[in-house]
Design brief:
The chain is an alpha+beta fold. It is built from three helices and four strands. The protein has a domain of 91 residues.
Length: 131
C-alpha cells in the first residue's frame, strides 16, 4: 500500500468581536489529507478496518496518480469500470467552473423598474380581487 500525504494550512476568521479591547486574530487550522493506493485484493480489508476505526474515506483531492478510483465506502468502487481519478478531478473542476458561471446577482432582477403583468386569480379563490 502507498500513501500520498497533503498538508495544508488555512486561516479561519472568527467573529469580529474584540476580546478585552483587542481584536481577535485569525485562527490557523492545519489539515492533513491522506490518499491510499493499493491492490484491489485488499479493497475489502481496508474498508472493514476503517469502518471499525470509525473513519470513512472521502473523494480524493490533489491525487497525483491516474488510477481507477475505488473507495470501499462508495458503490462505484465495486464496478469493474470504476472511474479514473483524473475523471474525478475533472468532474470536480467542471462543477466548480459551472457553479461560478451560473452565479448571478439575483437581487439585480428584484430592483427592476419594469412592471410585471397581472396574473389571473386562482380558480380556488372565491372572493373577487379588486384592482
Amino acid at each position: 500500500m502507498h500513501l500520498q500525504l497533503l498538508h495544508s494550512i488555512k486561516r479561519e476568521h472568527g467573529s469580529s468581536k474584540k476580546a478585552r479591547g483587542r481584536p481577535i486574530s485569525p485562527k490557523i487550522v492545519s489539515y492533513l489529507s491522506v490518499i491510499l493506493y493499493g491492490p484491489l485484493r485488499i479493497f475489502e480489508h481496508v474498508g472493514e478496518y476503517l469502518d471499525a476505526c470509525g473513519v470513512y474515506l472521502q473523494d480524493p483531492e490533489g491525487c497525483n496518480r491516474n488510477v481507477r478510483y475505488r473507495n470501499p465506502h462508495r458503490l462505484s468502487g465495486l464496478f469493474p469500470d470504476a472511474p479514473w481519478t483524473i475523471e474525478q478531478e475533472m468532474d470536480r473542476l467542471n462543477y466548480q467552473y459551472e457553479t461560478i458561471q451560473r452565479s448571478v446577482d439575483y437581487l439585480a432582477e428584484v430592483d427592476s423598474k419594469q412592471d410585471l403583468p397581472e396574473t389571473a386569480a386562482p380558480c380556488s379563490l372565491m372572493t373577487p380581487l379588486f384592482r
